[in-house]
Amino acid sequence: MTPHAYKQFAETAHNSCEQLQAYALIALAASEKLCALNFGAARVLCEAASAAPIAQAGSDLEASFAKQRETQGQALEQLGNYLQQVNEVVSGAQNEMLELGSRHLEDFQASMQSMLEEARKLGSVEAFQSAVSAEPRSRTIRKAA
C-alpha cells in the first residue's frame, strides 16, 4: 500500500469517528429535550392534582362534577400537547440521524471505491512488474542452456 492509501484509510476511519460523535450529539440533544418535556409534564400534573377539587360532604355534587370534568378536559388537552411534542422531538432526531447516516454512507462508499480503485491499479502494476522481471530470467536461463 502506498502512503496515500494509508492516509486515505486514516481519513475514512477519522470520518467514521466524527460521524459516531455526531450521532451521540443528536441523541443527547433529543434526550435533553425529552427530559425537559417530562419535567414540564410532571410539574403540570402536580399542579393539576393540587388544584383538583375534593368533594366534601354536603356540597353541591353537580358543581363538583362539573369542576372535575373541566379539570380532566384540561389535563387531557395537556396530555395531547405533551405527546405531540414528544413525537416532534423523536421524529426530528430520527430524521437527523437518517440524513447523517445517508451522507456518511455516501462518503464511506466513495472512499472505499477510491481505495479499491487504487488497489486495483497497484495490483495490475505489480503483476506487470513481476511479468516483466520474470521475462529476463527465462531469457537468461535459455541463454545459459
Q: How do the helices and strands line up, and which of them pair or pack?
A:
Elements: H1 3-51, H2 61-144
How is this structure best summarized?
With 145 residues, the chain is mainly alpha-helical. It contains two helices and no strands.
Explain what the structure shows:
The chain is an all-alpha fold. The chain has helices spanning about 5-50, 60-145. The mean pLDDT is about 80.
Structural class: mainly alpha
Contiguous runs where pLDDT drops below 50 for at least 5 residues:
none
Order of helices and strands: HH
- Measured between the Cα atoms of the first and last residue, the distance is 39 Å
Shape assignment = rod-shaped
Would you tell me the overall average pLDDT? 81
Determine Rg (CA atoms, Å): 34 Å
Please tag this protein with its features:
2 helices; mainly alpha; 145 residues
